[in-house]
Amino acid sequence: MSDSKNIAVLGNFKDPNKIMHAANKVRESGYTDFDIYTPYPIHGLDKAMGVKRSILPYISFAGAMFGLSNAVFLMWWTGAVDYKLNIGGKPFFSVQFGIPIMFELTVLLTGLATFVALWALCGLPKWYSDLQDDAGFKSAVDDTFVLSIFATDQRFSLETTTKFMNEIGADDVRLIEA
Amino acid sequence: MSVENVTQTGQGSSQEHLTSASYQNNPYPVPDSQREPLVLGNPSIHDVTEKIAGIIEGKANAKYWVAVLICASIAGIGFAAIGETVTTGIGVWGSNNTIGWAWDITNFVFWIGIGHAGTLISAILYLFRQKWRTAINRSAEAMTIFAVLCAGIFPVIHTGRPWFAYWLTPYPNQMQLWVNFRSPLVWDVFAVTTYLTVSALFWFIGLVPDLATIRNYVKGKTAKSLYTFFSFGWTGSMRAWHHYEIAYLILAGLSTPLVISVHTIVSMDFATSVLPGWHTTIFPPYFVAGAIFSGFAMVMTLLVIAREILGLKDYITLKHLENMNKIILATGMMVGYAYSMEFFIAWYSGNEYERTVFINRAFGEYWWAYWSMLSCNVLSPQIYWFKKARRNIPLMFVISIFVNIGMWFERFTIISTSLHHDFLPSSWSYYTPTMVEVGIFVGTIGLFLTLFLLFSKYLPVIAISEIKGIMPGSQPVHHHDEEHHH
């Protein structure tokens, strides 16, 4: 199988404490191109892996500002500039009557921005993964924690990475090729 | 919560659970071991997948399809009635010049209110870190979306020409007219569409990891490709979970003020008018409390049945039902307070018209609607002061139906009694619905139940990944002193 390419070394865990310990070890050993697949979010595991804090809140905030400014502009321009319509002597534009729609459009655009940004940051939708045929990887959405160190990592070498995975307590350490 | 109490209520299996060793690997052994467990029967993480995905993979029996058929037929009656309304005109309704808003707007407010419990459970209880919400949030959120869909039908058909409903949105047109942003009815359009959109996004984000679980579980080819498509290729990557949890928190933070704003704005449809009986400042909080009250009652009605049929008694436990009953009691007291405060203010205002309207509300031609509302909403939940009642399943089913009825009457009372005696005695009138209106309302109930039945079979009724995350031993034990050294 000389033409096949190494993708990653995978190892399974069942105990949340052990995967936590393993994540710390992997990070401390200097690996950066690795991931852990879990059926549910494990508190603090992202920190142990050294995942940088998500920029998602900033995108959501940008969405909020976009929604708010659009609401203000829409109500002001349509009511006080484009077509002034006197209804019961009420002002053509004022902040007070604008509050409900400013609020709703802010929420709407924040929600949409958060939704789009979430999938963009996760790199989804993506209906293919190099690991998708591995049985252990499949059970990561069921009840297994799967640690994967990718071959693209600078420190990756089949021998030492496999040995390292065994040392930190991974079960069924295996190589995935494509 | 002691062992004796659990066994008294008939959940015999839980006794074994409480005395078992399952709590030994609990990260917080002292407080949690004294609490009633959130999941009974001590299942493993894999058992949860088996249970929830098993509902989807299993074949539905004939009874299920009969139920779907009946509900869909009822929905069909509703659509026929809508067809009659649209082709003939809204003159086929019992509404008249004096009572222009009657069943139609009553039903709109009723359904919007039902939706509010879902958002309360999914967002507000999430922010308050109420772990018990995980068993019921998915189905309650589904209910929100279906209820808002039902609600949306009413104002659209009330326009008389629903094909022009898009006039409600601001868009450039050859008449160069814009919508009137000073009108609460326009606020309503924005509030309800935002609510539907954000609730659907929140629901879908919650579903994605579970759909990935289902994708790997189901065998059928079509089913697999559908679940694969909608799971977006979710792998469970912790790097994705990191973004995911933040997105979930942001959406929960957004939905919390949103849900309050929606019913506030619905109440402003009434409160910003100058009509006695509507023109009161208590309406926004009163409507929000009422919405949560009615929504929890509907969640209760459906969950009591669903947990039985789907075999989810270990997941939706008596503890969950009891907690919901506590909320029903609390919000029921709030609406009770609002009812009495309305009367007090009507008297205290010294306004003759206000006073007349409220006396007429309780003792006039619509007395039966008022007293139905009061006995269903204020009196019936009082039984929940007793723990035995809060944990009695047949009783809570009956009370939840009472509350649903009572909350419908609340909206009917507010709308019809305030309108039917206006300032000119010569235009006083009485309203009775026609069969077409009854048909539309019953039809929306059919639509709601059809959608819920389909949801309960084809989507995970319980948030799989969330319930796994709160099970004993599913999270690592944090050694706080150790963490400081890192």
Report on this model:
The complex is a heterodimer of chains A (178) and B (486). Helix content of chain A is 49%, strand content 14%. With 178 residues, chain A is α+β, with helices and mostly antiparallel strands. Chain A folds into 2 domains: 6-53 and 134-177, 2-Layer Sandwich (Alpha-Beta Plaits), CATH 3.30.70; 56-122, no CATH class. Chain A has a 4-stranded antiparallel β-sheet with strand order 2-3-1-4. The N and C termini of chain A lie close together (10 Å). The radius of gyration of chain B is 24 Å and the shape is globular. Chain B has one domain (60-471): Up-down Bundle (Formate dehydrogenase/DMSO reductase fold). The longest helix of chain B has 34 residues, at 184-217. The model of chain B is unreliable at 1-24 and 480-486 (pLDDT under 50). Chain B has helices spanning 3-8, 13-19, 29-33, 45-57, 62-88, 103-127, 137-158, 184-217, 221-230, 238-271, 283-309, 318-348, 352-363, 367-379, 387-390, 393-420, 435-458, 464-469, 480-485. Chains A and B meet through helix 1, strand 2, helix 2, helix 3 and helix 4 of A and helix 4, helix 8, helix 10 and helix 18 of B.
Outline:
Chain A has about 180 residues and is α+β, with helices and mostly antiparallel strands.
Which properties best describe this structure?
heterodimer; A: 178 residues; alpha+beta; Alpha-Beta Plaits; 2 domains; four-stranded antiparallel β-sheet; B: 486 residues; mainly alpha; Formate dehydrogenase/DMSO reductase fold; 19 helices; 69% helix; disordered N terminus; disordered C terminus
**How large is the radius of gyration of chain B?**
24 Å
Query: What is the end-to-end distance of chain B?
Result: 38 Å
Overall shape of chain A: it is elongated
Strand content of chain B: under 5%
Provide a count of the helices of chain A: 6
Q: For this entry, what is the oligomeric state of its chains?
A: heterodimer
Count helical runs of chain B: 19
- Give the CA-CA distance, first to last residue of chain A: 10 Å
Task: Tell me the CATH topology of the largest domain in chain A.
Answer: Alpha-Beta Plaits
Radius of gyration of chain A, Cα only, in angstroms? 25 Å
Q: What does the largest sheet of chain B look like?
A: none
SSE run of chain A: EHEHHHHEHE
CATH-level-2 architecture of chain B: Up-down Bundle
> What's the SSE pattern of chain B?
HHHHHHHHHHHHHHHHHHH
Estimated helix fraction of chain A: 40-55%
- Looking at CATH, the homologous superfamily of chain B is Formate dehydrogenase/DMSO reductase domain
What does the overall shape of chain B look like?
A: globular
Structural class of chain A: alpha+beta
Major β-sheet of chain A, in short? 4 strands, antiparallel
Low-confidence stretches of chain A: none
